[in-house]
Design a protein that fits this description.
881 residues; mainly beta; 22-stranded mixed sheet
Length: 881
């Protein structure tokens, strides 16, 4: 019944030199198979070879001993008590049982095994074989306690089954050195958490000193089929406490060599599920096909990123929702949202570029700022708070469903705006709204210019304008309450009308209305009107075809209720009405119907005939160099209706200042036309009446037909008379006089009538400028034409001092020569020719260069003879370029 090493109280046997057991099968039913009692001192090791020791206790040491097992099986526990003993398992030895040896050492070579059946304690453990940690008793607590040093060598294996009911470490040691393999198994069922804050961890090894080594490999035999792809199980030293070696659930993003999954950046969240990542996601070095930087959201569920310190790269949302309270959680790269997927953000600055067919949803009550050059096409939803975009391009395309506040700085916003929210125009830039919008929360213009390019662009709701509002769409804008604050401007472009519940123009505000396409209807209709500031009207000449014989009254504003206020100032085309001398204009509330604000206007030409408050005169002063006024009315002699004290003759017209006056009526005034400054455009064939045209500035004949100037035209030095393409001139019996220093500018082509100018006589001087667009289209000199510019009743006197061609991309080998017809001195001819044959009266100097571009050709059929050379050409050399 086992081996008992004892002295039996005899001093003769107080020490034993050793014990050797070979090829023995030692069994004890109720005691130790090998027992060294406390009185026995073993001077040499106990050697067990090719043997089997079986019993409740395989070895019991009441005194220190060294036991060396070689190819030996120990079926039972090892009890070394408090002795300082040593047990080594070698040469395929095995131990099935527990060890109790707080001060003892246990060593396993690479061929040996320990199947631990119950919690055990040793002083030092060195393992190069296999240890299976078991707990047949089912007790809680640590399975293996190493009082001093645990050393796991390269060939070692630790096998353990995890008990979820036991929260204690499976191994405790004072010092730990790790190597070899760790094989774990568990029957627990994985339950996916809703946040990484709830990820579990289990301490496998608890050391009193830092663990600086690791297993070569870790395996886990467990059912992880329910574990989503974004989670993995990791084994390693606790990053927060390096004295612990843990088994933990973590993000696959940071998976390492001892994780159940390779590292990757995909988060697949199934429909109906939500997962929140509170951990910081940074770029990492991955050993898989993943780049360690890109986050991919898949599945129809919701992934929430809550860490604003995230520093990863691109984001791809392939399905469901990727949500973040702060846009900083999205890392630094581009964001791609596939169709039907959603990016949901609450606040912060989204400076990433966003692409794809999906949508952005703004949630919460805070402000979200988008700054990227975004092309996402799934639209934008604002459920609350403020969405701010300095540039409209940051809002992608698609409908913007707004239940909060949308702030936009500048650009072209073609998106359709819907919902109960409001729009705020910010910044000093220009924002154009082109969508067919239905949003109802109103519009605020804090600064800059807001252009409404669609009659529905402003949706519904009130408009509060502290900048510039331009209504620029032909048709009627239907709005609620429109307020133009002090210092702000509201503008109605041509063809635009406005229907509002109320219109308020505060003091020092401006209302600009372009009446160029007025159709007789009021420009503004309203339930109520409050007026102040400045009214500036342009295009007033278009409100009626004729301004005679009486003043024309136009209802500019039609209100359903009485208008009890007025504008402080009235300007016309940016000029104070007092400075618009050619019109007598008044704007006021109609005394007979105080729901109307009327413009009463008439030409000052007819002031005496109409018994106007101002004196009649024929002066048209336009001070704005960029301004123009079109007189479509017929101007006739009114000398018989003049006030006797008038200083005007009632039949002459004078153009003053730098602007442009356009005459487009059927005029027959007889006193002549004087152009002192600026430009006068004759836009009808009878625009110039019947008197002399005395031109000291610029006269443009642009009627697409024959302009009648039967009183003659004199162009003084420094002045220009221009015939536009398609326009000819009939002077009747009168003269064309071009003084020295003047300019006659003629635009012609092969379709121009000949002669362009007819009259009684012509006196020529100054410059002739010819623009012939057809010259560049000639294929041969056989196609050259001579144009009869003038055909007078008498011989032409004088001549132009220079001829200049004003041709765009003209061929250098072509020119125009101007000359009085030597065969008929009453004619002035313009003849196309080769620059080779140019003379002193040609537009270009003579030369021998022919420049033709790729694909161009030109045939010279005439004889090229030697010519008199000049400083740039010898008169006899031809150069092809």
């Amino acid at each position: 019944d086992g081996i008992l090493m004892t002295t039996g109280g005899s001093s003769f046997y107080s020490n034993n030199s050793g014990l050797t057991v070979n090829n023995a099968d030692v069994t004890s039913d109720d005691a130790a198979a090998l027992h060294v009692d406390k009185n026995t001192v073993m001077e040499k090791p106990i050697t067990l070879t090719d043997s089997t020791l079986t019993g409740p206790t395989a070895i019991k040491l009441d005194n220190a001993a060294t036991v060396e097992a070689n190819n030996t099986t120990l079926n039972g526990n090892i009890d070394a008590g408090s002795t300082v003993s040593s047990l080594s398992l070698a040469e395929k030895s095995s131990l099935q049982g527990s060890v109790n040896g707080l001060n003892s050492s246990l060593t396993l070579d690479e061929t040996s095994q320990w199947n631990m059946t119950d919690p055990s304690t040793v002083g030092n453990l060195t393992n190069d074989g296999g240890i299976t940690l078991g707990n047949a008793s089912g007790s809680t607590g640590t399975l293996l306690t190493v009082d001093n040093t645990l050393t796991l060598q390269n060939g070692s294996q630790i096998n353990a089954t995890l008990d979820t009911a036991n929260s204690s470490p499976i191994i405790k040691a004072a010092n730990v050195t790790l190597d070899g393999m760790l094989n774990l198994s568990s029957t627990a069922t994985f339950v996916a958490p809703e946040t990484d804050e709830h990820l579990g961890s289990f301490t496998l090894i608890d050391s009193q000193t830092a663990i600086t080594t690791d297993f070569d490999s870790v395996t886990l035999d467990a059912d992880i089929s329910a574990m989503p792809d974004y989670l993995t199980i990791n084994a390693g030293v606790d990053a927060n406490d390096n004295t612990n070696y843990e088994l933990s659930t973590g993000l696959s993003w940071y998976a390492g060599a001892n994780s159940t999954r390779a590292a990757h950046g995909t988060f697949t969240v199934d429909a109906g599920s939500t997962f929140t990542v509170t951990s910081e996601l940074d770029e990492t070095t991955a050993t898989s096909n993943w780049d360690g930087s890109k986050l991919t959201k898949q599945g129809d569920g919701t992934l929430i990123l809550s860490n604003t310190g995230n520093d990863y790269g691109d984001t791809e949302i392939d399905g469901g929702i990727l949500a973040a309270k702060d846009a900083a959680s999205l890392g630094t790269g581009d964001v791609t949202i596939t169709e039907s997927a959603t990016l949901a953000l609450s606040q912060g600055t989204l400076d990433n570029n966003v692409t794809g067919g999906g949508q952005i949803v703004k949630t919460g009550n805070d402000e979200l700022i988008v700054t990227g050059d975004n092309t996402y096409s799934g639209g934008t939803t604002i459920t609350g708070g403020t969405l701010t975009a300095d540039y409209a391009d940051s809002l992608g395309t698609g409908v913007i469903a707004n239940s909060g506040v949308l702030q936009v700085g500048e650009g072209e916003l073609e998106n359709t705006l819907s919902g109960s929210g409001s729009l705020v125009k910010t910044g000093t830039g220009e924002l154009t709204l082109g969508g067919d919008n239905t949003y109802s929360g109103g519009t605020t213009i804090d600064d800059g210019v807001l252009i409404a390019a669609n009659v529905n662009a402003l949706g519904g709701g009130d408009v509060d304008n502290a900048g510039t509002l331009k209504l620029d769409a032909e048709g009627e804008f239907n709005l609620a309450n429109v307020t133009t604050q002090s210092g702000a401007t509201t503008e109605l472009a041509k063809g635009t009308t406005l229907n509002v519940d109320s219109l308020t123009q505060q003091a020092d505000s401006t209302l600009n209305i372009d009446l160029s396409k007025a159709n007789g209807e009021s420009a503004i209709t309203a339930d109520s009107v409050t007026l102040g500031g400045t009214l500036n009207v342009t295009g007033i000449g278009s409100v009626t075809d004729s301004w005679t014989p009486e003043a024309y009254t136009y209802t500019l504003i039609d209100s359903d209720s009485a208008i009890t206020s007025d504008f402080d100032n009235l300007t016309v085309a940016g000029m104070n009405r007092e400075d618009v001398d050619f019109l007598t204009i008044d704007g006021k509330v109609d005394e007979a119907d105080n729901t109307h604000y009327d413009l009463t206007a008439s030409l000052s030409w007819y002031a005496d005939r109409d018994n106007a408050s101002t004196d009649a005169h024929g002066t048209f002063t336009l001070s704005d160099p960029d301004g123009s006024f079109n007189v479509a009315a017929n101007l006739t002699d009114v000398d018989d209706t003049l006030d006797p004290n008038s200083t005007w003759d009632g039949k002459s017209l004078t153009k003053e200042d730098a602007g442009t006056l356009i005459l487009s009526g059927d005029n027959d005034y007889s006193g002549g036309t004087t152009i002192n400054e600026g430009t006068l455009v004759a836009a009808s064939t009878t625009a110039l009446g019947t008197g002399l045209v005395d031109n000291n500035a610029t006269l443009v004949l642009d009627a697409d037909g024959e302009v009648s100037a039967v009183g003659g035209i004199t162009t003084h030095s420094g002045a220009t008379t221009q015939l536009a393409l398609g326009t000819s001139l009939d002077l009747g019996d009168s003269a064309l006089i071009q003084q020295d220093g003047s300019t006659l500018n003629v635009e012609l082509n092969s379709d121009s009538v000949q002669p362009l100018i007819t009259g009684g006589s012509a006196t020529l001087g100054g410059d002739l400028v010819v623009s012939d667009a057809s010259l560049q289209a000639r294929a041969s000199d056989a196609e050259f034409q001579s144009f009869k510019l003038m055909d007078m009743d008498s011989d032409i006197s004088g001549d132009f001092t220079s001829l200049t061609m004003n041709l765009t991309d003209k061929p250098d080998y072509l020119t125009v020569t101007g000359t009085i017809n030597p065969e008929d001195a009453s004619e002035y001819l313009l003849t196309e020719g080769l620059s080779w044959n140019a003379t002193a009266t040609s537009a270009t100097p003579a030369h021998g260069t022919f420049t033709l571009g790729a694909g161009d050709s030109f045939e010279v059929t005439s004889v090229l003879g030697d010519k008199t050379g000049n400083g740039d050409w010898d008169g006899k050399s031809l150069t092809k370029r």
